[in-house]
Description:
It is a single chain. The protein is mainly beta. It folds into two domains: 3-163, Immunoglobulin-like, CATH 2.60.40.2230; 170-230, no CATH class. The chain is built from three helices and 17 strands. It has helices at residues 12-15, 183-186, 203-211; strands spanning 23-25, 30-31, 35-42, 50-57, 63-67, 75-79, 85-91, 105-112, 119-123, 125-130, 136-141, 158-163, 170-174, 191-194, 197-199, 216-217, 226-230. The strands form four sheets. A five-stranded antiparallel β-sheet has the order 6-7-4-10-11, with no helix packed on it. Strand 10 and strand 11 (136-141) form a beta hairpin. The chain is elongated. It starts with 11 loop residues before the first helix and ends with a strand.
Amino acid sequence: MRASAMRWIPLAAFLAAPAFGHIEVASGAATSNATNEVVFSVAHGCSGNDTYKVVIDIPAGVTSVRPMRSDFAIPTVVKDGSGNVTSVTWQKPDADALDADILFYKLTLRFKTPDQALSTLFFVAHQTCRAANGALSVVDWSDLPTTPAAQQTGNPAAALRLVPARAPGWNKLTVPAAMTDLSIFFKDALIVWKGTAAYSANPNTAAQIASTAGVSALSALAAGDEVWVKY
């Protein structure tokens, strides 16, 4: 953990390796250009201290944000001059703060995603933990793919995959950007076809692809490629 990612570090953190749990999307992919309920999980607190507050920054293009109250806390929002929600905060009442890191939390947002199918939205999150003596520490989950290597903290922002609206059966899609790991967006597809090449995350289907004459394994896609996807 780099110092820049943590604004207060208890002495105990230097004596033992700190334990942090990612704040990440637990609800899977979301449909682009549609209203979705997205669940963020908070797996652990900080160095044995309970999570006290979570702030999630809302990326550009995400609109109609409405947070859900939870057992963790009643959320509050910050808006810009146009009325768009720019961040959501859940903060426990002091009376609900625990003396130790023993709970797993889920926080839910409902919002409309931008029309950017087969892309990834990143949500920067800020996790505040509270020690038994009331001391606070903050971990920023803020690393993005565009963050320079020298500035990486080891704390990735939560990633939300956006998939196109689709119907059962065959769907024709155009890939907006090069893709080297098809499982990121097509893990739940029965099969993906491009010409005479095919991909499936299902090992049995993948074995059939490998054993079928005239069919090759599809392992990567280029920007602008058209594919047929069966769900």
